[in-house]
Amino acid sequence: MIESVLVANRGEIARRIIRTAKRLGVRAIAVYSEADAQLPFVREADEAVLLGPANPAGSYRNTEAILAAAKSTGAQAIHPGYGFLSENADFARMVAANGLIWVGPPAEAITAMGDKINARNLMAFAGVPVAPGTPDPVRTVASSLEAATGIGYPIMVKAAAGGGGMGMAVAVDEASLETEFERVRGFAERMFGDGSVLLERYFPRVRHVEVQILGLADGTVVALGERECSVQRRNQKLVEESPSPALTPAVRERLLAAAVKAGEAVSYRNAGTVECLFDPTTNDFFFLEMNTRLQVEHPVTEAVFGIDLVEAQFRIASGLEVEVPATPSGHAIEFRINAEDPKRFLPGPGAITTWVEPLDLPGVRVDSGYEAGTVVTPNYDSLMAKLIVYGADRNEAIERARAAVGAFQVAGPKNNLPFFAELLSNAEFISGEYDTAIVSRMR
Q1: For labeling, which of 211, 308, 340, 392 is most exposed (least CB within 10 Å)?
Q2: Superfamily for 207-442?
Q3: What's the topology of domain 132-201?
Q4: In three state form, how does the secondary structure of the chain look?
Q5: pLDDT per position in the chain (443 positions), as tens?
């Protein structure tokens, strides 16, 4: 097992990684920005190094400062968490070049999956189902209109280098395709430095289902069940659950097998997620993307499989075996507690005056990045905490979630707990027969 790790992240995921590291006897080193100096993860680490100003470019994306911190503290490994540098292949290579262990997949896998067009073509070659779309980048409005005739409307216009729901738009006809193509291309150039655009068939009533994979040290790729991620706003997830209430055993078997194929196609190592769109009317699923990192929603998999995925990441990075549970048990649901308006989901940062987690309730886990007296700044993602609820079955998980959401107290910044209370009384969600448009129908 590695002896020390620098956690190149912040907030709840940094705190989450530090917790497992300390349980394993691994020295945990935090890095932080000036804006985050008072957050719990800084205090809870064995050692903490100030990176720079609040702006991520000067702190959490500052590769030179992070590597300097690793060297000055004697860190043996770097865990990137999610976001920031977690899917930056160049940084993964820099870590290795500096004699450090990268707690993540090989840089080659990150590169292969980072471009949606390349990833789509790799998956098709490997026998993983993909939606009708363009096998090559579409660079002009004229070529996008020509491609659309073969794909059929409506069409999803996607930034090939995007991720996390960013750089996506739907076109329903030629006029809207012209508009959305130019908008997405411009956004992609500004945000990712790459204006490549991918066109795919858009499915209006579809579910977002993903599979947790682990690429083990011996080269084996295994699947640890699926997560339902269809409760979304602006193509970004709010609620995840496992197992998905939409899958039959036969569909689940096909989906997990396809996810393993996807991992094997890029010689995957460490934790990753294969994301798919699922059409419940036909039981067909299509590859969407592979996230070459630990997901925000990994705790629901941990709950139903009884595994610590961060520990598994450490073991794989150390070249050690991982005991993989054979079957899941029960049902888990995760709620992303964000500092945002529960109606329009606009950011609402501020100082936290009240923070009471419902940890005395059965089946409840909270992964939080904040506490009373700290400040949610506008510099980073609005995620404050994740509320994870586990039950023997979905009905019990929902009942426990209602109690937990009602007991979770947050004051100061805006928060979306009222939305979750509304969702947990929504007949469509309760039935399990919902899709990615459920939030828009509620609003």
Answers
A1: 392
A2: ATP-grasp fold, B domain (3.30.470.20)
A3: Dna Ligase; domain 1 (3.30.1490)
A4: CCCEEEECCCHHHHHHHHHHHHHCCCEEEEEEEHHHCCCHHHHHCCEEEEEECCCHHHCCCCHHHHHHHHHHHCCCEEECCCCCCCCCHHHHHHHHHCCCEECCCCHHHHHHHHCHHHHHHHHHHHCCCECCECCCCECCHHHHHHHHHHHCCCEEEEECCCCCCCCEEEECCHHHHHHHHHHHHHHHHHHHCCCCEEEEECCCCCEEEEEEEEECCCCCEEEEEEEEEEEEECCEEEEEEECCCCCCHHHHHHHHHHHHHHHHHCCCCEEEEEEEEEECCCCEEEEEEEECCCCCCHHHHHHHHCCCHHHHHHHHHCCCCCCCCCCCCCEEEEEEEECECCCCCCECCEECCEEECCCCCCCEEEEECCCCCCEECCCCCCEEEEEEEEECCHHHHHHHHHHHHHHCEEECCCCCHHHHHHHCCCHHHHHCCCCCCHHHHHC
A5: 999 999 999 999 999 999 999 999 999 999 999 999 999 999 999 999 999 999 999 999 999 999 999 999 999 999 999 999 999 999 999 999 999 999 999 999 999 998 888 899 999 999 999 999 999 999 899 999 999 999 999 999 999 887 667 899 999 999 999 999 999 999 999 988 888 899 999 988 999 999 999 999 999 999 999 999 999 998 899 999 999 999 999 999 999 999 999 999 999 999 999 999 999 999 999 999 999 999 999 999 999 999 999 999 999 999 999 999 989 999 999 999 999 999 999 999 999 999 999 999 999 999 999 999 999 999 999 999 999 999 999 999 999 999 999 999 999 999 999 999 999 999 999 999 999 999 999 99
Give the residue extent of every domain in the chain: 4-103, 132-201, 207-442
Find tokens 């610590």 and name the residue: 308
Residue whose token pair is 């490997």: 126
Q: Is the pTM of this model over 0.90?
A: yes
3-state secondary structure of 79: strand
Give catalytic residue positions: 293
